[in-house]
Structure prediction request, 305 residues.
Amino acid sequence: MQYKTIKNTAIYSSRLIYGCMRICGDNSIEDKNKGKRAIHSAIEVGYNHFDHADIYGAGQSETLFGEVLKASPKLREEMFITSKAGIRPKSSEMDYAPTRYDFSKQYILESVEGSLKRLGIEQLDMFLLHRPDYLMNVHEVADVFDVLQTSGKVKHFGVSNFKPSQAALLRSAMSMPLVVNQVEINIHNIDTLLNGTLDQCQQHDITPIAWCPLGGVAYPAWGNTFTGIDEKRIETELALQAIKYQCEPWLVILAWILKHPADIFPIIGSTTPARIIAAKHALELQYSREDWYRLLEARNGVSVP
Ligand SMILES: NC(=O)c1ccc[n+]([C@@H]2O[C@H](COP(=O)([O-])OP(=O)(O)OC[C@H]3O[C@@H](n4cnc5c(N)ncnc54)[C@H](OP(=O)(O)O)[C@@H]3O)[C@@H](O)[C@H]2O)c1
Prediction:
């Protein structure tokens, strides 16, 4: 495993973060045991940074992770834990209120308390706003961040799925640095390359974290627009590069993401120990600029102008 400091923090994070969104599977005992084995595999191979959200498994994912920590409390000393909140689900079919975003002070404070309780820890290393709340009042958010930091409940703050303008607006009100923007980056969704997100990250020492890095390769990406012809073209190029780099095709995609100078940290969401372990080989590939562009060309179906 390789490690790198998240800028503006003392978090010396594994270059691959382990994502806990899928660790409860269908909430059966078998799937939860599989999830626990996945967490232990990640720890054994050197992942020290774990990504959560209050809504993963409707809170069950944090609870499961908390059980792992309770059984081996020393693990907490070696790891960094990130969680997110701000997506407020409809509480039941009878609930009049729809699923909505909620960055109000009260909701964020309650959400962080809930995460700490489920995880069985005193402090989150990072707290992220999960998706931009269209009704965000940046002064209220800045205030709640101050309260959470002063009370010792959260060390560092970031966002997820924020556009550059939204991140800039929030930064302008915050008294501490905004340290990460967790965004979707994969071969299907390259918005952050094009919309200024990765430029803003480099300019302001914000670390980009990539969710669903294998979308469009291991499974159809969210809002998939690839045609069968696109998929074939990408698959063919990936297969050629996999032979060249002597690895499985999905590792090429991780190397493609890691190549970007913004120092993107991919989040690995597999629950299969062999894949969790194998992912680190992507860090060792000497991936070339030429192959990066060949894959982009395969994705786009045209060469760059
Ligand atoms: N901020 C946000 O809005 C947001 C949104 C989504 C996710 N996230 C975070 O990002 C993390 C990663 O997302 P993700 O789980 O979608 O990431 P991912 O690593 O791209 O995908 C993992 C999924 O792909 C499957 N998979 C992996 N390698 C495969 C292969 N070679 N062939 C076939 N299937 C393969 C895994 O199955 P197996 O488990 O069977 O190996 C698993 O279902 C999440 O855990 C969460 O922490 C954040």
Summary: Residues 19-22, 51, 160-161, 182, 211-215, 218-219, 250, 267-272, 275 surround NAP (CB under 6 Å). The chain has one domain: 3-223+250-285.
